[in-house]
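Here is one chain, start to finish.
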Amino acid sequence: MVDGAWWPYSHDATAELPGLIAAVDRLLGRVTLRVGVHQDAWERIPRSIPARGRHIRVGWFRYADSRMITLVFAAAEPVVLLIIPPGAATGPAEATLKLTAQDTTGLTPDDIVTLAHLPHDPVFRATAASPASWADEGGRVTGQEAPVPVRRPPAPV
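Its structure:
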């Protein structure tokens, strides 16, 4: 099941994960304990991320869907986000964000990607650097008190 979507600016996990963790913690009022990513989908994956006086462990996996990221909390269900490739066109990326902000019960990641016309590239390792900034780009979190915004700020000029 997909709880939302995330549209990072780059494939650099070291640059992207701190912003995602901070935004999810703040918006959901939770404390992220662990993050799970697909090893081949990211560059520079750290073992841990410093966040508000603690270190969040990052797990690297090869058996999981490379388009997904999982955030694990204390005493709460994990949040699973569909990752929109950083180079995705704005139209399909925004369609994916809107779709995942709705009820996605019964939809697989492939269904969501198809409905939003997002490329089906399962491993999207980047070769070129992108801006390393990031802001509240999540999706809806099923069963949580507050939805995660589904906006991507404009790229720096």
